[in-house]
Amino acid sequence: MPVLERVQQQYEVLPYPHRDPERELERLRQPLICELPRVNALLWAGRRRFADGFRVLDAGCGTGDNTVFLGEQLRGGGAEIVSLDFSSTSLDIARRRVEARGLAGVTFVQAAIEDAPSLGLGEFDFIVCSGVLHHLASPEAGLRALRSMLKPDGGLALMVYATYGREPVYLMQSLMRRLAPPDLGPQRRLEILRQTLASLPDHSRTKRGLMEHEMFRSEITQSDAGAYDLLLHTQDRPYTVPELADWARGAGMRVLDWAVPRAYRPETYLRGVVPGDAGDPAALAELLHGGMTKHECFLEREDALTRERVALDDPAGVPAWCGWDFPAQVRQALANPGNEFRCTFGPERDVVVEADPLGRHFMGAVDGRRTVGAILGAAASRWPALKPAHTLRRWVAFAGAFEEVAALAMLGRPSA
């Protein structure tokens, strides 16, 4: 059976990720690479209006996490989302989730990514493709297809598997290819997988690597779809940072930035000066980390023009929180006494900043409307004895700590 057909069959029987449309309103999942303030800052310096004419493609939408979150952020603005997947079962779940939330402007298309350019879907401002291309028979063809549908100034948010942190996954996959070959069928293969995991001794390197890793353990224990997708997938290949860069280049694209910039900085892991001949800093950071399980990044076309970036100290810049629900956390943090704000935005995305009066002023002033100039001006009025240079340094350190973990975005004034 061809790879594409086998993978499609898998997702018809075990749509992934497992989602229950009947419980949709209990929780809004918020994929990092779909946070639109960050996307806006990175691609259009925060000047893009998400209104009529703005087009998004969710390529390989699965059961709809990206589509739902994007739809909530774009609600009422007139933007268009096209959600594409080759699994009718997955599309049905995504459609029901969108309907449960009353989201408009979403069109569902059943097709393979490789075939999408021939469907007359047009070009898109923003494409998200999360956890998909590494499952294609030809990831290269899939990426070229997406590039052909991306507007010249648009961007592609991408997630693919990383090599080093998934070693226990690939050890188990190799074992399962021997014990539970694909021709046995999904249910029998799952039975053998569960029996094998239960039988492996606790000192097994593979078992420990899977069950001691929070994300892997969650996938294995919470649903059959998660366990199958992780450990029994027919087509699954990871990438190192250099391989990802070469792959993108071969499709006429390049890495614009990483979803969590701090994770790809060598200085996050090394104290002191990094040798000048260490090569690509992101590739070095990947080796220093040693356990990355996925790469999330933003790509642009190689012919894209140089993009404007709004600096942290730009008086006209407008800082905004990227997280959908972080403003509520800010209010809670400001109500609590203490000398530090300790914020977390996910694994390895912790931020600790001073919670003295000036730090509390900064924390409460970021609202997506006030400019840096206004925030600093208000500080000068409250504490006239503070030197402006000191206040500016404190602001840059404060905002930079959040920007490095993709929690704060610097926006420019929207275009007319």
Your description of this structure?
By secondary structure, the chain is α/β, with parallel strands linked by helices. Helices cover 41% and strands 16% of the residues. It contains 16 helices and eleven strands. The protein has helices spanning 3-13, 36-44, 65-73, 88-101, 139-148, 167-179, 186-199, 205-211, 214-222, 224-231, 241-250, 281-289, 326-335, 357-365, 372-382, 388-403, and strands spanning 55-59, 80-85, 106-110, 124-130, 150-161, 253-258, 294-301, 318-321, 340-344, 350-354, 408-411. Helix 9 (214-222) crosses helix 10. The mean pLDDT is 95.
Which terms would index this structure?
two-stranded antiparallel sheet, 41% helix, globular
**Average pLDDT rating:** 95
Q: What is the spatial order of strands in the main beta sheet?
A: 3-2-1-4-5-7-6
User: Total number of helical segments?
Assistant: 16
* Low-pLDDT windows of residues: none
Rg over CA atoms, rounded to whole Å, is 23 Å
Helical percentage: 40-55%
Approximate shape: globular
The chain-level structural class is alpha/beta
Give the H and E element order.
Answer: HHEHEHEEHEHHHHHHEHEEHEEHHHE
Strand content: 15-25%
Taking the sheet with the most strands, its summary is: 7 strands, mixed
End-to-end Cα distance: 54 Å
Number of strands: 11
Summary of the model, kept short:
With 416 residues, the protein is α/β, with parallel strands linked by helices.
